[in-house]
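Batch 3, record 17
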Amino acid sequence: MNLSQSIAEIYEEHKGLVYNLCLNYLQNIEDAEEVTQDVFVTIHKKMNSFNHKASLKTWIYRITVNQCLDFLKAKKRKKRFGFLIPIHDNSDSFSYSTFEHPGILMENKEATENLLKLINQLPANQKTALILKVIDELSQKEIAEVMEVSVKAVESLLSRAKHNLKEKIKLNEGKNT
Amino acid sequence: MSSKPMNREENKMFEPLKHIHKVAPSDGLFAAIENKISKQHVTKLSAKKLLAASVVLIVLIAGNSFLIRNELQRNASSSYENSELAETFGINSSNQLYND
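Prediction for the assembled complex:
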């Protein structure tokens, strides 16, 4: 089996996982496709160094999360370089493109978009833990393996994420009324 | 495994996220990935070539700096010799030939 064949097999088996995680993380079709490409290029590049300590699925999840974070950072850096973001602004809201998620039905679009926009305001590790838990339905042990932290740390991240999100929802409701 | 179930409030909070459907990526995505991988092969420089290029570069820089240093030293010693000669024979070494 040559490298090209094996990347084709990995792609066939994991394309849904990677693409949907990218979509949930970036909420834009074009961005998700770009990062999905980068994920499989990275998998191809690092395939020889994969040490089988974690499962292939966990390893792919980790690469995908890291690529999404790198993509958002790069996008923010580009906009900051173009002076669109003030130096003191550390929020990530500038990193996201227009909301465009094909997995969301029209009738749920507004509520889901609002919730995802609030989740985007959470710190990156809280957002990652929350997406993996609520949307991808991974167990805390699996999330711990993906994020390379302890199960306790994941528990704490999830609890802080939920708390922060509740606060943000309250604040947002207050603004809208 | 300590996976706490979500309470009713949290369930309600995350309700919209439970309606997100899985989507299949576009058909041309794998071709784009293959294209990126093949491009990487073309532009990838082997470590050996990179090492050889850096050695050549270091040798060139060292050679050039050696030549420049030698040239500067030679210029300094020749100008010293000239001024000594001019002093011995009382030659005016400046361009000002006439005293006012």
